Structures are given as structure tokens and as C-alpha cells.
């Protein structure tokens, strides 16, 4: 088992990456990894090849740019990262 850090908190354990058919709701693939494995690295194992649309959380941001998915003709719907997770600069008022 490995550890991963989110913010200032360390987590130990495993993650389950699950591929689900959006029409039937049935699970078609499950991949278990150590907690420190990036979600985006498991996409190839979760897709079966007949997808038209892929919906994913923010852990899969940038998946459509990866070379192993260049030939896929799917619509990628990936949730946006939250403002705090991208360490956005604080807003400032324009100077007069």
C-alpha cells in the first residue's frame, strides 16, 4: 500500500477505478490501484472501445490530450477542477 497527499493530509490505501455503461448502469470494468496512482493513467483499462461519450471527474483532466487516446472518436466530458485545487491567485481590483 502507498500513501498520497491531498492538501496537508496524507492518505493510505487503495483506489477503485470503475467503468460503467451510462445507459444500463452496469459496471463493465473495475481496476484497483494503490492510492498514489494517478486516475488518468487508468483510462485505457476502463474503456471497452464502443463508447460515444466518456464522463469523468476532475482526476481525468487532460485525458483527451494524451497520445494513447488521439484516435478515439468520443466526446470527453470531464468535470472542472475546483478553484482551490488549482491554487488560483486571489482576485484583485483593477487600479484606478
Automatic annotation (TrEMBL):
PANTHER family associated with the record: TRANSPOSASE INSH FOR INSERTION SEQUENCE ELEMENT IS5A-RELATED (PTHR35604)
Stored Pfam families: DDE_Tnp_1
Taxonomy of the source species: Bacteria, Pseudomonadati, Pseudomonadota, Gammaproteobacteria, Pseudomonadales
Annotated Transposase IS4-like domain residues: 4-84
InterPro entries associated with the record: Transposase_11
Annotated TM spans: none
One MF term in the entry's GO annotations: DNA binding
Protein name (database record): Transposase IS4-like domain-containing protein
An annotated GO BP: DNA transposition
